[in-house]
Amino acid sequence: MISLGHSFGWFLRLVAVIAFVYLLGPLFVIVAASLSDTGYLVFPPQGLSLRWYQAALADARYLNGFFVSVRLAVTVAAASLVIGTAAAVALTRFHFPGRAFVEAFFLSPLVLPGLVLAVALTLFFASTPLVPPGMTRLVVSHLIVGVPLVLRVMLPVLKRVDRSVEEAARNLGASPLKAFFLVTLPALKPGLFAAAALAFIFSFDEVEMALFVGSAREAPLTVVLYGAAQMAFDPTVAAVSALLILIALILMVAQQLYAQR
User: According to the model, what pLDDT value does residue 78 have?
Assistant: First the structure.
């Protein structure tokens, strides 16, 4: 006789398999369609060919868009990490009136739809000359979400750090700044890595603000893919998407290996 617990375990396994198929199925279709030998997207693929990958790597639009996206994402991740970590330290180490309101204010952009932020930023930039157009506006726009993402990760990490170790370093003669960099910051390394990765992924994949605020001369890869899909959705778009999936997979495996080590 099969026990109730054993049956429930098989049910949970089935639900997990269905969830994985639901999440990974579209990615598998994109990768398979990029290998098709036809001049249009089809699944299952008719014939196998790498010519669409060669066409994607030879297209200057995709290459320029990729380098713009990487430069943008690295800048946003670095700036978000510095600002968000500093804000997290201030919110966890100092007690001041209205601290809960300040924390909620910093995290509020995470609850707003990207399209709403994009429209609001477009109107703001149109009415003020303080932020020059181009990459600068994109960086400022992405920081509005990147900083709260870092803050959301670093707040619980900082709350779990044992402050007695930092106090011991200060008792031994270290200044508050030196104690933070020598004692607290190394303990924050896993959280810093996760926060930076989250901000990088957001900036690299973001579409709405890049469409509204970005410039045509420095268009990120997401905007280039969006325009290519609007004009002619050929297998080259699928090949670029498959390459991005491969890059994400490599980074995820590298992160797991680093975490295990």
Answer: 93
